[in-house]
Amino acid sequence: xxxxxxxxxxxxxxxxxxxxxxxxxxxxxxxxxxxxxxxxxxxxxxxxxxxxxxxxxxxxxxxxxxxxxxxxxxxxxxxxxxxxxxxxxxxxxxxxxxxxxxxxxxxxxxxxxxxxxxxxxxxxxxxxxxxxxxxxxxxxxxxxxxxxxxxxxxxxxxxxxxxxxxxxxxxxxxxxxxxxxxxxxxxxxxxxxxxxxxxxxxxxxxxxxxxxxxxxxxxxxxxxxxxxxxxxxxxxxxxxxxxxxxxxxxxxxxxxxxxxxxxxxxxxxxxxxxxxxxxxxxxxxxxxxxxxxxxxxxxx
Length: 300
Description:
The active site is at 173 (proton donor), 204 (schiff-base intermediate with dihydroxyacetone-p). Its EC number is 4.1.2.13. This protein is of the alpha/beta class and 300 residues long. It has a single domain (11-299), classed as TIM Barrel (Alpha-Beta Barrel). Helix content is 41%, strand content 16%. The protein is built from 12 helices and 10 strands. Strands 1-2-3-4-5-6-9-10 form an 8-stranded parallel β-barrel, surrounded by 7 helices. It has a two-stranded antiparallel ribbon with strand order 7-8. Helix 6 (147-163) links the parallel strand 4 and strand 5. The longest helix has 17 residues, at 147-163.
């Protein structure tokens, strides 16, 4: 695996950056990101209700999964990590630097998700608490009226993260009144290229679709446009295990992505099942297993 260490990583932080990159991708260059940032993004919609186990309503459920499953990194907000991190120090963390709820709809105002804190605060927690923090994440809504503010924040945060040897993941979603089709493949490719220009190491996008149907080949434009920045796809709404794993396999082997960022498809399950499913996702993403092999892991 060749690591393209960006030049904004100073010489004193180069070894840290490369060690973090190897850790987050398990030495193969592929990323399995367990997303635990939806407590604000989706409020309680994804954690409480019909078909969702009662234990998912407790934030610690996320940390239990992340501590027991095979993952590359667990993404959550700084406050939640600070609250539970003492009991889960070995989890590889990625701090989500901004978040917003879904209460204000697109018909009311274009989306804005401003940064809550700076990289210095992340580094302070990492040092003082001895946590295994490997990177930062930022959501950018391309096409929003507030795009300039978010672009500027993301650029500064990525630069600061690299100064300390941390990795960066940009959630890059075209969204707002100027965006007629958020799933357009050409637009998603532009979003991936934008995040690459910002200097992000990894880029999370929604899988594109055409005429309402997903097709992994539609990702090829985005993965090429991202260049040396790795593209991963959002897990999306709940799907059957086999459907999800086949889609992931196709995204990697046909679309050219280097992994996934999955939340509700993992945590909306009882602990044992959630761990097995996370391990099956890891098997396809990192261990290069087939869907059939991954399903055996999920089925136990």
